[in-house]
């Protein structure tokens, strides 16, 4: 009796996995074939002319290794930028994503961009208009600290804010 | 009757696996043929001697030959330089010294490109005639050279000669890749202030920007038929894999990973599939996808990271794997899943690129984060430092022509 129940549970689990993975594949396939827009995409607006650099500095957003998630400790820093931008309606901001030197230069271009995009999403969520934001990933190419240890790497995994009029 | 059938089945299976095991790292390096070059009669002037030195160097670098003392090779060159005036010309052949069998016997003339290029051509012909393999002597390598804050694209011959700088914008350039015909290089440059993709036609000395969408444009790799570029774009809000038609610049999206990013695409030799890096599984790993679009298939499961794939001419994929705290080059057969890690000596090996012989790989090797270019051998010869280039060099790509 018990083994039959166990057997039934296993079979149900297997069926769920098989059907579940089939659904996921179908969704992926549907996503890549047509030009349908997925709701969660937030396309970039066109690049703007950056004009004059505004001499205001914001704290860099720091990230964990291989991560693009905005940590709780960094949220306040993003808030500060959003506040400034709502009070200064004529400025635009370029979000510059960076990585530490480990890993391939190419993957780090994508990871740096992903970090910039995370901050961009956060700012849009806080009310900053999409057409006032651009991203620019430097990957591992522009470290602030040239050192080869965690204290340097920690500073290099960052997003910087470049504000222009 | 069934026993005999089963035995036959087992033997067939074993023979198939013996062929895969042909490609094995042997501790002592690959087997080489000793080649006596003394029988190639050349004049003693500078040009002829440059030809001879270049030829011998190419033959040794091919990995298939050693140069023997006079009269001592298994193989021997024969032929002579044309005595008449005008450009350098030579007849060159190869024979087996034991049985006299001739592998080749050809006439060559410098057509204006110089004796070094001619020697490369002869060396590749010898490699093909004796071994049936495409030599790489006539190919070129492109790479990034670091000078202060500038990172520029350079090109040089496969023996390290003829170094040429092809960008001079005083900005950062990243990840150059050759077109299949060896005439153009695509790369990422910050010339506009943003990471954009440029295409440089080396013979016409012209370049144009081919991708400048908002956000990231990077990782460009040209398709074998020369019609497409696979690359990473973030214009839709997230770094994803796209392909771009070179003719009209229209992008076609290939991946949709909202909470992950893609990078480093590389085309299969027949252009039907693309291998790329994605961190959708939590860490950067290799995936393959049909070039026409479809579901990505994960390829790598070992190592903290698998990055910088290069899909080689015989179908094997080379990549850089984070393993035991260092990056090492691993060669993967996508069909069987067979994996061959290459040298592991505590240095970081990154950015592999296949030579067209399907045997050698150029990559960067870094000790204490200072990268230099090295050539690795999948048949077991020790790594050799590439050229006499001083300074910091990375991201090499090896041309097919």
Question: How does the SSE layout of this entry go?
Answer:
The complex is a heterodimer of chains A (165) and B (401).
Chain A: H1 2-33, E1 61-62, H2 72-87, E2 92-98, H3 105-125, E3 133-139, H4 150-156, E4 158-164
Parallel strand pairs in A: 2-3
Antiparallel strand pairs in A: 1-4, 2-4
Chain B: H1 2-20, E1 33-36, E2 40-41, H2 46-61, E3 65-67, E4 75-80, E5 89-96, E6 102-109, H3 115-131, E7 140-147, E8 150-157, E9 164-165, E10 173-178, E11 184-189, E12 196-201, E13 206-211, E14 217-222, E15 228-233, E16 240-245, E17 251-253, E18 262-267, E19 273-278, E20 285-290, E21 297-298, E22 305-311, E23 317-323, E24 326-332, E25 339-341, E26 348-354, E27 360-367, E28 370-377, E29 384-385, E30 392-398
Parallel strand pairs in B: 1-3, 1-4, 2-4
Antiparallel strand pairs in B: 4-5, 5-6, 7-8, 7-30, 8-9, 10-11, 11-12, 12-13, 14-15, 15-16, 16-17, 18-19, 19-20, 20-21, 22-23, 23-24, 24-25, 26-27, 27-28, 28-29
What does this protein structure show overall?
- The complex is a heterodimer of chains A (165) and B (401).
- Chain A is an alpha+beta fold and 165 residues long.
- Chain A folds into 2 domains: 1-41; 61-164, OmpA-like domain (60s Ribosomal Protein L30, Chain: A, 2-Layer Sandwich).
- In chain A, 46% of the residues lie in helices and 14% in strands.
- Chain A has 4 helices and 4 strands.
- Chain A has helices spanning 2-33, 72-87, 105-125, 150-156, and strands spanning 61-62, 92-98, 133-139, 158-164.
- Chain A has a 4-stranded mixed sheet.
- In chain A, helix 3 links the parallel strand 2 and strand 3 (133-139).
- Chain A is globular.
- The relative contact order of chain A is 0.18.
- The model of chain A is unreliable at 18-39 (pLDDT under 50).
- Chain B starts with a helix and ends with a strand.
- In chain B, strand 26 and strand 27 form a beta hairpin.
- Chain B has 401 residues and is mainly β.
- In chain B, the strands form 7 sheets. In chain B, strands 1, 2, 3, 4, 5 and 6 form a 6-stranded mixed sheet that branches.
- Chain B is 13% helix and 42% strand.
- The longest helix of chain B is centred in the N-terminal third of the chain and has 19 residues, at 2-20.
- Chain B has 2 domains: 33-131, Rossmann fold (3-Layer(aba) Sandwich), CATH 3.40.50; 140-398, Neuraminidase (6 Propeller).
């Amino acid at each position: 009796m018990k083994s039959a129940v166990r057997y039934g549970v296993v079979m149900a689990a297997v069926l769920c996995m098989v059907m579940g993975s089939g659904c996921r594949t179908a969704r992926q396939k549907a996503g890549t074939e047509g030009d349908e827009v997925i709701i969660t995409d937030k396309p970039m607006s066109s690049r703007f002319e950056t004009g004059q650099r505004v001499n205001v500095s914001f704290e860099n957003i720091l990230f964990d290794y291989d991560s693009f998630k905005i940590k709780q400790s960094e949220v306040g820093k993003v808030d500060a930028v959003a506040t400034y931008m709502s009070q200064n309606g004529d400025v635009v901001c370029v979000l510059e994503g960076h990585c530490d030197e480990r890993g391939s230069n190419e993957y780090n271009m994508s990871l740096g961009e992903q970090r910039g995009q995370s901050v961009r999403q956060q700012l849009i969520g806080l009310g900053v208009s999409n057409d006032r934001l651009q991203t620019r990933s430097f990957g591992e190419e522009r470290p602030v600290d040239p050192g080869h240890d965690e204290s340097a790497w920690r500073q290099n995994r960052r997003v910087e804010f470049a504000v222009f009029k | 009757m069934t026993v005999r059938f089963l035995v036959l089945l087992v033997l067939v299976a074993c023979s198939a696996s013996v062929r895969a095991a042909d490609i094995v790292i042997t501790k002592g390096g690959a087997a080489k043929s000793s080649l006596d070059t003394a029988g190639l009669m050349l004049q003693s002037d500078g040009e002829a001697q440059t030809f001879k030195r270049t030829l011998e160097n190419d033959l040794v670098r091919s990995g298939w030959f050693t140069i023997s003392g006079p009269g001592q090779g298994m193989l021997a060159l024969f032929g002579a330089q044309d005595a008449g005036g005008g450009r350098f010309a030579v007849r060159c052949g190869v024979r087996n010294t034991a049985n006299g069998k001739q592998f080749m016997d050809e006439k060559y003339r410098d057509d204006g490109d110089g004796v070094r290029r001619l020697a490369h051509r002869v060396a590749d012909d010898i490699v093909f005639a004796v071994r049936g393999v495409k030599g790489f002597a006539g190919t070129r390598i492109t790479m990034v050279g670091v000078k202060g804050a500038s990172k520029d694209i350079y090109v040089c011959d496969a023996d390290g000669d003829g170094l040429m700088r092809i960008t001079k914008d005083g900005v950062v350039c990243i990840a150059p890749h050759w077109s299949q015909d060896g005439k153009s290089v695509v790369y990422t440059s910050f010339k506009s202030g943003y990471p954009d993709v440029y295409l440089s036609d080396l013979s016409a000395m012209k370049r144009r920007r081919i991708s400048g969408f908002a956000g990231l444009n990077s990782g460009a790799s040209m398709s074998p038929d020369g019609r497409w570029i696979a690359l990473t774009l973030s214009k839709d809000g997230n770094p994803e894999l796209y392909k771009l038609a070179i003719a009209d610049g229209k992008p076609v999206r290939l991946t949709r990973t909202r909470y992950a990013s893609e990078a480093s695409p590389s085309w299969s030799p027949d252009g039907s599939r693309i291998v790329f890096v994605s961190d959708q599984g939590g860490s950067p790993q290799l995936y393959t996808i049909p070039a026409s679009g479809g579901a990505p298939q994960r390829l790598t499961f070992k190592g903290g990271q698998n990055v910088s794939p290069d899909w080689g001419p015989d179908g094997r994929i080379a990549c850089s794997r984070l393993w035991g705290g260092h990056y090492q080059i691993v060669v993967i057969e996508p069909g069987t899943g067979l994996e061959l890690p290459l040298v592991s000596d505590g240095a970081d090996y990154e950015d592999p690129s296949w030579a067209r012989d399907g045997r050698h790989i150029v990559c960067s090797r870094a000790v204490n984060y200072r990268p230099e270019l090295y050539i690795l051998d999948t048949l077991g010869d020790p790594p050799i430092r590439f050229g006499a280039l001083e300074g910091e060099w990375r991201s090499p790509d090896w041309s097919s022509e």
